[in-house]
Prior knowledge:
- By secondary structure, this protein is mainly alpha-helical.
- The chain has one domain: Glycosyltransferase (Alpha/alpha barrel), CATH 1.50.10.10.
- 49% of the residues lie in helices and 6% in strands.
- The chain has helices at residues 5-20, 42-55, 58-73, 101-118, 121-140, 168-189, 194-210, 226-235, 260-268, 274-288, 310-314, 335-347, 351-365, 394-407, and strands spanning 22-23, 26-27, 40-41, 84-86, 91-93, 166-167, 248-250, 253-254, 258-259, 299-300, 379-380, 387-388.
- The strands form five sheets. It has a three-stranded antiparallel β-sheet with strand order 3-4-5. It has a three-stranded antiparallel β-sheet with strand order 6-7-8.
- The longest helix is centred in the middle third of the chain and has 22 residues, at 168-189.
- The N and C termini lie far apart (42 Å).
Amino acid sequence: MHKNPVEEEGYSKALALLHACVTADGFVASPSDHDNYRRIWARDGTIISLAALLSGDNELIKAARCTFETLAEWQGPHGEIPSNVDTAAERISYGGTTGRVDADLWFIIGCGEYWLATGDDEFIEHMLPAIEKVRFLLGAWEFNNRGLIYVPLTGDWADEYLHNGYVLYDQVLYLQAQRTLARIRAAAHDSLDHALIEKVSRLRHLIRTNYWFEDGKKTPDDAYHEVLYEKGRALAPSHGAGQHWMPFFSPGGYGYRFDALANVLVSLLDISDDTRCSKVDEYIAAEVVNEQLPLLPAFHPVIKPVDEDWKDLHVMFSYTFKNKPYEFHNGGLWPVVTGFYVADLVRRGRMGEANRYLQGIYHANALVMEGEAWGFPEFVHGKNLTPGGTRHQGWSAAAAVIGHHALKGQCVFRVNEEQG
């Protein structure tokens, strides 16, 4: 059986775009001269680096190292990792109206993954001071010293969306960052950090307890706030409870929209269990995915002008409003999110589905933008299936590379539950 042209080109075109993102200072988010995408970004740079490490390409692997070194060089006074850096103009952003919590989390994860993939002990020794400063800052962001970090509005990748508080996506990355820290510190000190290992175990338990509602059970002992938990559970049955993980809770209550990236990572990073993974898969298949182009949206369902949240969403932007229905985070379909889902499906032996979603990534990346095929859009319109956002997006290419290598049996994250 012959592969279709899109599949034949999908990987090679993706690899070529990753090479186009390489600079002397590391990976830019996109080689496009659009807004500030031609900068070194912590989040984008780490995800592109994960793909680079899987590729085995020496030039890309070297660029991954440069990315983390650049971010560390421009670390803020309290340990803040830049959201993005323009090294030529010496312009550093730690976020917009609030900082970007996940920049710090991805930085630790990325440094650890680079070190484990390459065995570059000199690199990790050089990065340790920066990593320890980030570790201290993240602990301060727990605020109440109870295990979960608090994320302000616009404080992570969904920087023009409505999620805030104890956001699941960030807690999952926090857990992975701490697992990574445990591996690094064990190597640096030639002994286990038992306090950190206990903290990892505690955080995993908090996530499993507080972000999935089940009827008929007493309030769990580890509910973060008993009254808040019960209020959230009482309203949950009409919002997908028992079908997917809840996206966040805050002093104002729980959020209920489906956060695709959080739900994928909670499985991929060994926090979920088989039963809950299967329920999420069923929910995605029945409620979320457009069968014409199998890609995951950032969030579901779409917020529309008739909805209660629309008024708040409509003013949630820095320069121009991007979150029209089915666009950007508001129901836009994201290759990068789908790339991690491919890796998770492979990890759980669901090879046929994984391949189908990988084909979706290839087809999305091949869409025409500005008159050229292989536009590698940032997202795809969730209804019209037209390309949107910035073209030649590095992490859309990374999604194809991650999915390709996952199907060949390679693991995206070398730090896992069993290892540390």
